[in-house]
Amino acid sequence: MTPEDLQICRSITAALTSPDRDSINYLFLEPVDPAYFPTYLDIVKRPMDLKTLGENLEDGTYTTREDFYKDCQLIFDNAVAFNKGRADSSFVVGLAKKMSTAFERERKKAEKRSVASSFEADNASLSSASVRKKTSIKLKIKRNSLGSSSSSKAAGMDEAESKNAEDSAPTAQIFSKNKIKLSSKQDTDNSTTSVASSGAKKIKLKLNRGKQLPEGVVANTTITTNPTPKPESSTPTTSKTVSLESYTKIAPMNSCRTAQCYKTLSGLKRRQVSNCKWFLKPVSDAKLVKDYRAKIECPMDLGTISSKLDKNQYPSVAHFVLDLRRVFSNCLQYNTSVNDSFRPIVMECLNVAEDLLTYFVAKNEQSKRSVYPSLLYCWEECIQIIHTLTDVINPDDAYQTAHYFLHPVQFFCGGSFPENYLDKVSNPMDLGTIVQKLITGCYDSPSGFVSDCRLVIENCKSYYNEVNEESQFMLARANRLKEAMDPLLEKLLKFDQSAKGAAAKENAGSKCMVIKKPEKKFLKEIMTELRATEYTDRQAKITEMATAHFERPVDTNHFPDYLDYVENPMDLETVDSKIEQDAYITPEDFEFDVSLIFKNCERYNTPKNNMHMVALGKYTAKTFRKLFSTKMRLLERGGSVVKHPLLPTAANREVSSTLGKAIGGKKRPPSPSQEERSSKRVSIKIPPRTASKSVCSASAGGKLAGGKKAARQSGKKMSASPSKLTIDLNAPVPMHVAIASIKESYPGRRQGKDLDGWELECLKFLKQLLKHPWISAERPKYIFHAPVDIIFPEIREAYIAKIKNPMDLTTAEAKLLQGVYQSADEFVSDIALIFSNALTFNREGYEMGEPMSCAYYEASTHLLKYSRWLSLEVLQSFLIDSSSSPVVNGCATEWDLTIQNREVARKEMEDIVFNEHIEKTEAGDKLSWSESECEKLLKSLKHTSDIKHMTYFIDMSFPADYTAIISKPIAWIFCQEKLRERRYNTIGDIVADLRLIFSNALKYNDRVRSVSKISQMAYDSAIHMSQKLEQAIDRMLLSVSDRIGREKIDMITLHREMEAKERAEEEQLKAQWEKDNPSATVEVRTKFRIQRTHRKRTTDFEFPFYDEEDENEESHDDSLRNAKAIFEKQQKERAKMNAISLSVGIHVAECLRQRADAKAWACRMAYKLHLQRKKNEVKMNAGRESSENASAKSGGDFVLTAMKATGRKQVKISMSKPMPKKTKRKSCLSSL
After folding, report:
1. For residue 534, what are the β-bridge partners?
2. Pair 953, 1025: CB distance under 8 Å
């Protein structure tokens, strides 16, 4: 193996064994142990792993890198072969496939790096040799795609002319003494380029230029970047070669041309709303993508064009026009079915696009030279000819005649030309290529189009010149297509040569669409509604006016780099002035200027990572587009502009309330939006600020009036130094502004990645605390992020009087990043101080029952406990063992980071969580949150990284002596089944069962682990998984205990709000009664009390048909109508109750029947069991008697023999009365 190959193999091995892939490569790092899998060697004949692979590589086992590749792939093939079809290890197949994909990717990367390094080394040696010899190098590059001649001699040039052509080719300097000359001459070798030096040595460099056509074949592509000059010829050309480079030199893209392209694109989208929806995004349908890419060489869509405009990727207008036309030519080229419905859509869109290009692009050019290729004046007639040919049907099979002529030959032959095709056909052509050339502007005259159409038929006849069945098949279709084509082409040529065709050719360039000029009133209405748009920050929930930052030009004294990012500034004041000056000729001009404001905002703030202003700019731009398109649609339809607003802005609500007063007489409050209903938002009104005091002025979105000159003039009036971030202390400030001011007051803050040790862990603790649902920045319910006296200035004096040491989360974070804290205890003390200050300030209001104080007091109580639990969990690596430190629990305002406090906190969380009853749901329903937490705990043990340890505990088949040692056998699958069947009552029950799994394993395997290797591995796995379980329990304890505490406090808050609402309603009723009865006496009040004491009788459920007295007087008809309605309601409720009672009765009867059947079945089974027991007892008694008789007989013979031997006689004894017989009691079945 060469050193280069060895380096490639080593890099692949290092990449596959990298720790970055430890989630998928852990099963392939070591050899498979047959003790775990006894049948492994029966299936896998040649085991292999990454460790063995690396050892073989270093030992020189592999002679080529292909041998190394085979062994590497064998690792993953073995894993798939062994684990395929096995339910318990099917996940290994997925890991093996991922590793195989990673191997292929790393192999390609390594080979590519090796080739690049060797190529650079060759270039370096070649350059040094050239410097020493002071020679020149000529590179002859073949360009088949340009359609050049095969050689200089074939083009009619002699050797001198060929040499002059080489000298006139473009050159590139290498250092100062060497030249590389590039020539467009063709070579006989398609894949190499010869490099000749002054010596006899030749070097061939391979150049990758894509697919090349064989010698003498002219490519279909006619759009080139560096065209070769064609030799002059007297024969007329059939098509022209579009050189985009020439257009780039004539009219390169600038800001003005970019604006016209934007206007063209927006005008097309607005005028063809329903049609353009098909072209807004790339083709992504999985059923079409493969076929689409095979047929379409350059896919394009309107969204991609807009993105390329935003990124300034078009060097000229011609490139933009080419992409725009490709959108529609691709559609025609792909959709070739008979009478396809996309054809009229494409023709309509293409007509509008060409008209808009003429109006916005060609019309605004000062020179008379065209800045983009023009279409053939009769292109619509040519397209119609193609459509007619496409619709021709075979009379024998009813298929398209032109089917095999619609796309290039390569498409029908698997991507390459058939054998000997290019020898017979010099210029391949098809109808799809003709459409592409026609719409992209490659034809000068109809004769070129006609020649290419006829070339399609001629190529078919040239290739199928032999007599066989296939030739007859294709020639029949070619002749039929020619019969339909010839009359159409002759008609087109006659039209071109006629006077009518000449007139059409002259009028083609002068045709221009008419766009109505927008009225001032119309544009001002759009500006008014746009200024009334409100924007709510998704994180801080702060509402502000969306256009407040875009009103005035940006001052470059404050933002000196603004003009480096923004070429054409714009702002709303400038737009207003242009409206007053009647400067907008078309609606697209107005739309472009307003959209430019928000694009400038995004262009300036995105590199600076000012995401708030980027989001604000995008939201306002989207609102403007929606507003503008709606208004323009109504205007173009001939309807008057509606007077009521269309968007949910502040101005709209004001107008809606006015309309409500005029119609209904009462002001109807606006209905809250979905976001307002879901969460309460803090809406803070921002007072008007000057340009020098603007807090968010860095989010520049406006324009300098007059451009850079105005910026220099404004710099004379204002100070050169940028203003600092200031806050008006007498007005409420948005939370994000207050946070920004706090961070600026702590300069020198470090990045989070620069922290280490206890500081890094403290930052993790703070980040996790900020994710709490109550104080999350996305939707905070309680505000602890900024100083209270800034967010709520109305309570500043009272707060300062009670709180001597204020603290907030942002200040604590800034102090941590600045390095103020000396230890973790100081940081945790400041976090605790935040919530203890809230307790101190709100204690008096809590005792008085004030709702806001009660809410903050209870929330701070819970957050103090949660902060203590979280800090002792996250910072456990920095805890100390100190018995002298006080041990705290509950709502403690201070605590030390000690092991004793962590144990107390864990015990406290266990008491809360383990005693929590699981909210059970029906089988098959969605799990409750408590059931979901238990399921997460189960799944945490079966993670892919721990599957090799959990193999012993998932579904165990217990040994024979297992139950003799373990009293309660259990496995993971048993716990999962119990959870699915809803048999766990508390969270502590499932935790106890999971702990029992590993304690049983430790108890059973501890006896024999010294003599059994498998027992030792099971013992080690039990220790490992028990630690994993405790870690998962710690995470669950923290989250579940926090949720339980939050739910209790939320329930208390909800009851308090309901009580406050009831009290408010009672006070309102009382005030209304006193207002209606100003001169009421004591008797009236007594009567009022008596009426209130007559309440309905309490029942175990509510009857909805009680008739309550109405205080208002009613007429006789109204009373009858109300009585009838009440009676009907009663009848419906009674019918409903009868139906419910009947269903309940049927259910009870069914339950009783099932119970009786179950009882009868139990009696039958008990009787059968009783009979079986009696039979067993009879058999046992018979066996016992036979054994006794045998023993007695044997024993009696022995005694008689002994007595005879000694001369003694046998004595007989008999009973005077017979003994009573024992009666067996019958078994009682009543217990069953």
Report:
1. 545
2. yes
Tokens (6 digits) for 12: 């692949």
User: What is the SS3 assignment for 158?
Assistant: coil
Q: What is the pLDDT of residues 466-512, one digit of tens each?
A: 888 888 888 888 999 999 999 999 999 988 889 888 888 888 766 67
Contacts of 1156 (CB under 8 A, 6+ apart): none
Checking 17-21 for CB contacts under 8 A at 24+ apart, the result is 17/50, 17/54, 21/99, 21/102
CB neighbour class for 557 (10 Å; exposed up to 12, middle 13-18, buried from 19): buried
Instruction: Supply the DSSP symbol for 828.
Output: H
Identify which of 488, 404, 377, 449 has the alpha carbon closest to the alpha carbon of residue 222.
Answer: 449
- pLDDT tens figures, 1151-1199: 999 889 898 898 888 888 888 888 888 888 887 777 766 655 555 556 6
User: What six digits make up the tokens of 1198?
Assistant: 């022995």
Lookup result for tokens 């030096």? 197
Q: Which residues contact 649 (CB under 8 A, 6 or more apart)?
A: 529, 532, 533, 534
Mean predicted lDDT score pLDDT of the chain: 75
- Better pLDDT: 624 or 1103: 624
d(CA 529, CA 531): 5
- Run of H or E including 544: strand 543-545
How many C-beta atoms lie closer than 10 Å to residue 939's C-beta? 11
CA distance 938 to 954: 11
Q: Which residue would you say has higher pLDDT here, 1131 or 90?
A: 1131
Q: Which amino acid is residue 436, in one-letter code?
A: Q
pLDDT > 90? residue 455: yes
Most confident stretch, 436-445, 655-664, 748-757: 436-445
- What is the distance, to the nearest Å, from the Cα of residue 744 to the centroid of all Cα atoms in its chain? 34
Beta strands in 502-624 (DSSP E): 534-536, 543-545
Report DSSP letters for 756-774, one per residue. -HHHHHHHHHHHHHTTSTT
* Count of CB atoms situated within 10 Å of the CB of 873: 18
Question: Using CA of residue 1015, residue 1017, residue 1021, residue 1023, what is the dihedral sign?
Answer: positive
Q: What is the pLDDT of residues 333-384, one digit of tens each?
A: 898 887 888 888 888 998 898 888 888 888 777 776 788 888 888 988 899 9
The sign one gets for the Cα dihedral 206, 207, 213, 216 is negative
**Vertex 408: Cα angle to 404 and 414 (nearest 5):** 90
C-alpha 19/C-alpha 50 separation (Å) is: 13
Give CA–CA dist 851/856, Å, rounded.
Answer: 9
Q: How far is CA 17 from the centre of its chain?
A: 30
* CA 128 from centroid of its chain's CA atoms: 52
The predicted structure's pLDDT at residue 305:
92
Partners of 898 in the β-ladder: 880
